[in-house]
Design a protein that fits this description.
This protein is mainly α. 65% of the residues lie in helices and 2% in strands. The protein contains 17 helices and 4 strands. The strands form 2 sheets. It has a two-stranded antiparallel ribbon with strand order 1-2. The chain has a two-stranded antiparallel sheet with strand order 3-4. Strand 3 (338-339) and strand 4 form a beta hairpin. It is globular and about 70 Å long.
Length: 399
């Protein structure tokens, strides 16, 4: 399947089997007791996370929160935004995504583009291949690398929008009228397709076949990973035996491949050798995995959590809890948490918190953080490298 065919079928792949009704991905960094060995030293809080991102943006030359602004403020998306107002009063996920794009209080929506810019500056120009010396460079970053960072953000934003497609067969009366939810799905598909089309146009302008191949394969990985996520419903987890190894494979596809391959592509644009490209790939991969596990852990460590708040049964703490508990006991716990045909998430959350799944997920988060830091050791010391290290510290330190 080529890139054009992939984009044409992307909404159907992402929406065919529904999507998680609540997404846990924002790195809210509340505190819990420290578990396991760790290389970082700074304490973490939302204010600290914002400071880390703000300082990193100064290093790359301008706030990445405005990277894809010219696309988001285009006439086409402005018209779509007017249509999204019709969804106010419903529970369509597109509204949540739209609010997040406008008011990103956790500075996490543009994280991927920021990382691409930072690792581009940390690596600098190639010392072996000087063919890039005539390229425009601002703040130590080539213009083509800045374009790549914007493309990465466009793809990520498009996937967020497409993942907001609702499974109409699972609607509840509180979600809103059926016609409004159908309308929301159509808007999600159109706006996501528009962003992907802009990303593809930007890729073509880079005129680098390997970079196009890397980003196209990242898109295919995303589709495959999200398809596996969507095909695993809450009920199927009662019968399926999903281990942490399978979870890591699927999570890399759906959450790590884009950043990892974008970091590698940034090195390719600067004509770095295969070893440097691999280290950039490894950093992007492990940092993205840590970021995902951090967000998975949040529902289990927040001091104030609503009893009605759901969490993803495909999250790292839950999968690890199942693995430690064993299949039979897990099925029993699921049954005990059922009330009138519905899953009591508050009761199940307490059972999971009482087990080893949460602390093991924190250890796994730190493992990937350490692997990301190891990859950075191949880059020369610099402000950009320190900023990349601080991002890892902010995502993986819980005390």
């Amino acid at each position: 399947m080529n890139l054009r065919q992939l984009l044409l079928h992307l909404p159907r792949y992402l929406g065919a089997l529904g999507s998680p009704r609540r997404l846990w991905w924002s790195p809210c960094l509340d505190t819990i007791s420290s578990v396991g060995s760790w290389r970082g030293q700074s304490s973490k809080s939302p204010a600290h996370w914002n400071q880390v991102v703000s300082e990193a943006e100064k290093i790359v030359g301008y706030p990445t929160s405005f990277m894809s602004l010219r696309c988001l403020l285009s006439d086409e998306l402005s018209n779509i935004a007017m249509q999204v107002r019709k969804l106010v009063g419903t529970q369509h996920p597109l509204l949540t995504t739209a609010r997040g794009l406008v008011h990103d209080s956790w500075n996490s929506l543009q994280l991927r583009g920021l990382v691409v810019l930072l690792i581009s500056k940390a690596a600098g120009p190639s010392s072996v291949n000087t063919s890039c010396q005539n390229y425009d460079m601002v703040s130590g970053i080539y213009s083509c690398q800045r374009s790549l960072a914007e493309i990465t953000e466009l793809i990520h934003t498009a996937l967020l929008v497409h993942r907001g497609i609702v499974n109409l067969n699972e609607l509840q009366s509180s979600d809103g009228p059926l016609k409004d939810m159908q309308f929301g799905n159509k808007i999600a598909i159109l706006s996501g397709d528009f962003l992907l089309a802009n990303a593809c146009n930007g890729l073509a302008l880079l005129q680098n076949t390997k970079v196009v191949e890397l980003l196209a394969s990242a898109l295919m990985d995303l589709v495959q990973g999200v398809y596996h996520e969507n095909s695993t419903s809450k009920e199927s987890y009662i019968t399926d035996d999903i281990g942490i190894s399978t979870w890591k494979e699927q999570t890399f596809l759906s959450h790590g491949a884009l950043l990892a391959k974008s970091c590698q592509a940034a090195m390719e644009l600067a004509k770095h050798d295969a070893e440097v490209q691999d280290m950039a790939f490894q950093y992007g991969k492990h940092m993205a995995m840590s970021h995902k596990i951090n967000s998975d852990v949040q529902p289990f460590i927040k001091e104030k959590t609503s009893d009605s708040m759901t969490f993803n049964l495909n999250s790292a703490p839950v999968v690890l809890h199942q693995e430690f508990l064993g299949r039979d006991l897990w099925i029993k716990q699921i049954g005990e948490a059922q009330e009138k045909g519905r899953l009591d998430y508050a009761k199940l959350r307490e059972r999971i918190k009482a087990g080893k799944g949460v602390t093991s997920a924190i250890d796994l988060c730190r493992y990937h953080g350490n692997k990301a830091l190891e990859a950075l050791e191949s880059f020369p010391p610099s402000e950009a490298r320190s900023a990349l290290e601080n991002i890892v510290f902010a995502v993986t330190r819980f005390s």
